[in-house]
Every structure is written in C-alpha cells, then in structure tokens.
Design brief:
Number of strands: 10
CATH class of the largest domain: Alpha Beta
CATH topology of the largest domain: Rossmann fold
Helix content: 40-55%
CATH superfamily of the largest domain: P-loop containing nucleotide triphosphate hydrolases
Shape: globular
CATH architecture of the largest domain: 3-Layer(aba) Sandwich
Strand content: 5-15%
Number of helices: 12
Radius of gyration: 21 Å
Order of helices and strands: HEHEHHHEEHEHEHEEEHEHHH
Largest sheet: 8 strands, mixed
Number of domains: 2
Length: about 325
C-alpha cells in the first residue's frame, strides 16, 4: 500500500482533479470492479457503538465460514482500532508485512516463470508481473487459510496512533478494497468501525452490492438506539438485506447453570421485528470467548465444540437460508 492512505481527497487547487488524478481514480475503479467481481458474497458487519463485540462476531463468522470449506477473507476497515489481526492470532507490523509482500510476489512470479526460456524473456516476464501487481496488496493468510487485511499491518508499532482526517481515512479504505489481492473468494467479511461516520459510509458506497449488512447489538437500550441509527443509514442507501445478532444476551453460571441477564432481558427478536429486519439469534457472554485472543485465535478455531462456536455455525446456516439461497 504505497500511499498508506495519504494523498487521497486532495484534488488539486480549488478542488479540481488534475488529468493524472482523474486517470488514477479511473484505474482504481477498474481494479475495484475486478476485485469485487471475484468475490461471490460480501457481508458487512456493523454496530451503532463500540464495545458490543462486533469484531469478535466478524472474526468468528469468517473463521467458521473458512472451516466450513468456503474460501473466505476478512477486511478490517477500522482505521483507528484495527483489532481483527489480534483476534485471529496474527502479530505483524509494517516491516514484517513489507517483507511478506515481497515474499508473496516472489512466490507468485516463481510459480509462473518458465526457467527454460532465455534470460531476456524471463526478465521481461518478471517486469510484466511487476507492472501487473504494482498496486496489489497481498492479504495475510492464517493457518486455516483465511485471508486477512488490516491497517494494523501498516503501522510500525502497536502504540502508534493513526491521526487522519476524513479524506485520508476514506481514501485508505477504498484503497484497501480495490488493491487487496483477494483472488477468488466465496465470502468477504468486512468489519466496519462503529457508527455512521466516514468509514462505514465509504465501505457501503464502495461495496454497494453487499449481500448482507449484519448489525451487532447488546440488550442495552443505548446500544439498540445506536443500532437503529445504523439501520436507518443502511436503508437510506437502498440496501435491503439487514440482519441482527444480539451479543452478550445472557450468561450461564458455571456453578449452578442459572441463566443470568447481566445487561437486562434480551429482546433482540422483538427489536428486529420493530425495525423490520431479520433476527439471526443471540450469543451468550462466555469467558472462553473473551479470552480467546489471549490464546491467539477465535473460539470457533480453538474449540469448535463450544456452544458459542456451534451458534456461529447455526447463524451462518440462517444467513445462507435467508439471504443467499
């Protein structure tokens, strides 16, 4: 990602784009269309506020899809809090990611290079490949085969804040979508930052043909009020397929098996009916789920037999039934 999101939104003097900038934008749109054309299904995960477990849901859905045999990628679109890699057990900063890019390109070239050709033709082939992939960003592939892209790979230290204004953020997100070399995928999961600001708006505009926008909420009334705003925003963009998951809906006491409603009585199904969107079920609070990133993975990978892992399989089956068949 050569520009690291910089230079976007600056269209010359007086807001006019130069011919060169216009050509760059056209070329990016071509790459975007080509990229998205290789992905069968796109699911955008959203929430009205932070702290509701949206990224946990997105990461587990992605890993569960991969485990079910679907070629899956996940895009962490949260510029300021890119946590998806950590949840998937990936520790990679800018220097290592740059080396990863070189290694992936080398691997790609060597796979297609005919070493029996004269040296001049081999050099020509390598140069043509360099030109073809000069804008490409190769996503990181996990042990399960899941492809991952995040701003977390583009910072040089874990405590490095990204202090950008709107145009830089929206430009970076569009570049991640258009230039990430996903290849052919069955599913791309996009983990949006919370709210209705520049970043989630850019994702929805860049991927207007999303198969599903999946809202994550908790039984808390504040969370639900914020999700309502997100639903209205998505509807204003003429996206009809909207689903709801109620996370942290209850807690099962490990000592007496009593079901406790820590954040209040769950009413996700009723809430979804009122908004006229599809209810896809609830998820409990479970210590193993919150502790999973400390053990370098999601609960669906670390313990597929866990009740929460089974719930993610059920949720995916419901998604397929409601929106993809």
């Amino acid at each position: 990602m050569a520009e690291h999101g910089q230079g976007h939104g600056h269209h010359g003097h007086g807001g006019q784009m130069t011919p060169e900038q216009q050509m760059q934008m056209i070329q990016q749109d071509i790459r975007l269309a080509k990229n998205l054309g290789q992905i069968k299904h796109k699911i955008v995960v959203m929430s009205g506020k932070g702290g509701v477990g949206k990224s946990t849901v997105a990461a587990n859905i992605a890993e569960t899809l991969q485990a079910m045999g679907y070629k899956t990628g996940i895009l962490d679109a949260d510029i300021h809090g890119p946590n998806v890699p950590k949840m998937l057990g990936i520790e990679m900063l800018e220097e290592e990611f740059n080396q990863y890019q070189f290694d992936k390109f080398k691997e790609l070239v060597e796979a297609g290079l005919d070493t029996s050709l004269p040296e001049e033709e081999q050099r020509e082939y390598i140069e043509n490949q360099r030109k073809e992939y000069q804008h490409s960003i190769f996503p990181v592939t996990t042990a399960s085969g899941l492809k991952v892209m995040s701003m977390a790979f583009l910072i040089d230290a874990l405590d490095r804040p990204i202090i950008w204004r709107g145009p830089q953020k929206t430009g970076a997100i569009k570049q991640l979508v258009s230039d990430c070399h996903w290849g052919k995928l069955d599913f791309l999961i996009i983990d949006n930052p919370p709210g209705t600001g520049d970043e989630p708006l850019t994702v929805l505009q860049t991927i207007p043909e999303a198969d599903l926008v999946l809202m994550v909420t908790t039984p808390n009334v504040v969370s639900q009020e914020d999700v309502l705003k997100c639903v209205k925003m998505v509807e204003m963009m003429n996206i009809k397929n909207i689903g709801l998951i109620e996370n942290m809906a209850y807690y099962i006491c490990p000592h007496c098996n009593e079901k406790l409603n820590i954040f209040g009585e769950g009413n996700g199904e009723k809430f979804a009916e009122e908004m006229e969107i599809t209810y896809l079920g609830d998820l409990p609070i479970e210590e193993k789920v919150s502790d999973a990133p400390n053990k370098e993975g999601t609960i669906s990978v670390l313990d597929p037999s866990d009740e929460v892992s089974k719930r993610f399989v059920e949720i995916i089956e419901d998604i397929k039934k409601e929106f993809l068949e």
